[in-house]
Amino acid sequence: MPDAGRIICIAGAGIAGMTLALTLAKFGARIFLIEREPAIQEFGAGLQISPNARRVLSRLGLDRAIHEVSFEPAGIDVYAAQREKHLITLRLGDEAERRFGAPYAVMHRQDLAEVLHRACKRFANIDFMFGARSFSAEETGKGVSVQVDEADGNTRNLRAFALIGADGVHSRTRTVLMGAPLASSTGLVAWRVLLKISDVGGLIPTDRTSLFLGRGWHLVAYPLPHRGQVNIALFLENTANAGAEPPLNPLFSRNHKLGARVEAIMTLASGHWGRWPLNNVSLPSWHKGSIGLIGDAAHAMLPFQAQGAAMGIEDAAVLAPLLMTEESADAAFSRYEDLRRARVERVTRISRSNGQIYGLGTPLAVGRDLVIRLGGPTAHLKRLDWLYRYDAAPEIATGNTQATPALGTRR
Question: Do residues 227 and 108 lie in contact, with contact meaning Cβ atoms separated by under 8 Å?
């Protein structure tokens, strides 16, 4: 049976951290969320919530709130190099929901963070500690002692069952408290920008995602109607040391064969790009005693399968019931890692492979494009059935760790 008296500390009030807090709260735990920012603040722009992640969030009672601030694209238009006509439209929308029992949606990261924050605030057993200057922890034999330097200069001492680092790719929990390695650079940069739908409506469809593939680069664009914007993400090889803008110039255009649509998008975005170096985190262990990691803090990966946030959400759903039922945090973390590592590593490999495939040049790109066309509009759904159909933790809907697995819920 769950131990409802357990105290859990979570470092990082991001998407993974708040999903974990909300899941633990349903089991009756007391949660302290330690966050260095003065308020909820998600950096970045858009993110994709695939059915495997949406299933978890819906079971937490968030389906309607997410539906109100997200968008379910009908498909993905795939463009090859500079061609103006897309190769194929890969189906999403109703087809994805029919297959997997939950929709595939896109949304702004801040909107999801605010949905999670509002839900967390409904629980008296979740305590946010915003503006934390620093925190430290020591093993006690029966758990962990956590010291937090709060925003007002006072120090708060907490005796907890476990401390979980959900503090991202540059996790202090990982590097300082666990003595584990820093994140490693991939040599890639994501350039992100939000443009007005009214400005790009003539360039790309506003009911679908657009994926442009070129030699050494690719660009993803999808609408965020709730905000009246389109999220643009451009990925270039060998630009880790570039300046504040992607190199839009005649030489770049000629070498990379952007095509008229992408050239126009980049012109609209000029002066507005945000630069995000892409890093990896790979560890031999995701925990040390009563201190553990979830999400990017444990296994940051390339974004080319759009599963970074989803893996953190899944982590939270798997770890929460274990933290409430295992006799020690060390046992909970060990079991969690046993359940999660193979899947996360598979997603990491596919994300890396996708990036290589997206950036192929001639003649290999010709074969890639032929495979995409011949596969048809639903081949990607069949290929990713193992990923999207996954049920992380069906018991979180009721707080019953013995509940029977189910496929999902719907509005």
Answer: yes
